[in-house]
Every structure is written in C-alpha cells, then in structure tokens.
Amino acid sequence: MPRRVFFSFHYDDVLRANVVRNSDIVSRQYERAARFHDKSLWEEAKKQGDLAIKRMINGALEGSSVTCVLIGQQTWARPWVRYELLKSFERGNGIFGVQIHNVGMKRASTLLTGGLLNPRRTGATLLTGGTGLQTEPSPGPNPLDYLGFTVDYNRRRLTLYDHLNGAWRTNPHVEGMSLNAVQYQLGGADRGKFTQLFPVYSWKSGNGYQNFPTWVEAAAQHACR
After folding, report:
1. What DSSP state is assigned to residue 195?
2. Angstrom distance (rounded) from CA 99 to CA 69
3. I need a labelling partner for 92 at 20 to 30 A (CA). Which of 45, 123, 129, 131 fits?
C-alpha cells in the first residue's frame, strides 16, 4: 500500500509540479494516494478567505503520512506553503523537499546566438524548454530554512515559527504543541530550523524519476510512520 503523499507547491510552478505528479514513478505508485490541490478549488477557497483555505489544506492533509514540498524560485515566500509545512510538522508527517526549478528543461544540443556561442567555452548553461533557448534558473531558497521551532523542556511544549521580513515570529495560523506529540528526533536541541531535520533533493540531478519512492519511504520512517 503506497504512502499517502501531500504535495505542497507554489501555483506559479504548477507546470513543473505536474511533471513530477505525472511522472511514471509517481502516477503508478502514488496517483490514488496523493493529495494535490486542483487550481480551481484553490481559487474558489481564496475567494472565501483564510478560513476556507485552511479548511481545504487541512482536509487535504487528512490521511496523508508524508509531505513533499516542490521547490521553485519563490516557494519559500508563499504563506500557505509555510502553513502546509507547519501543519505537516504538527500532525507528524514525514517531510522532504524536491527542487523543481529546472524541471522540464533540456540541455541545448546546438550552438546558437548570432555568432556561435559555445557554452563550454563561455561557461553559460543553455537549456531548451518549450520554444527557444533558456538560461537555467538558479535554485530558489529552501523554504525549510525559513521555518523553525523552540522547545520548552520544563513545560514540555514546542512552538513553531516562520521567518518573515527579517525576523522570526510565531505563525498566526498554527498553535504550539505538546512535546510528547512530536514525531521527530530533536537530539535534545532547544531550537532549530526545519533544514536540520528534513532533507531536500533535486528532481533532475537526484534522478527523481527513479528515486522518489526511496525519498518518500525515508521521510515516513524518519517520522516513525
């Protein structure tokens, strides 16, 4: 029985996210078990306000055991991606990230531009994606680096934070939790970032087409799922 995977992503990256969702390894093993917001549902929830969005996200997380955040260039800054990850931590999901900033792009096989531009000589990376040549985008910031926690061992409480406008704050949509409910090994730390607990892979260089199930299972086991 495949793990139920919740996909968190920024909707500007939906085409790249769909490359992951529609890949053979995901569609064969996780299609029925995956939680993936339809954009029309998302837009309708946005019209109804924050409470409707939270209900939609909470409902999609229900029954999932692993959360995969698909990381583009602006994913780190999206408030509802942060909420999805904080709620995933709160419910004890296995969590991991996958970089998708360069998904759907192929290396150029010919030398182009006016004169001849040789990428090997200039150091340029030319890629083809859709029509024409494109320069490969750089990876976006890791959203897990903007989420963190503190632990009060005397009160046996853990508080969740996100980093906004240069400062850490308690997220207004996510409450603290009992330390007894935490599914992850914190190693006795009294504070930390999600990057210290959860890995990030690259869909392309990490061969996600083959390794995605391994990443899912490792995340689930890390959360004792």
Report:
1. G
2. 8
3. 45
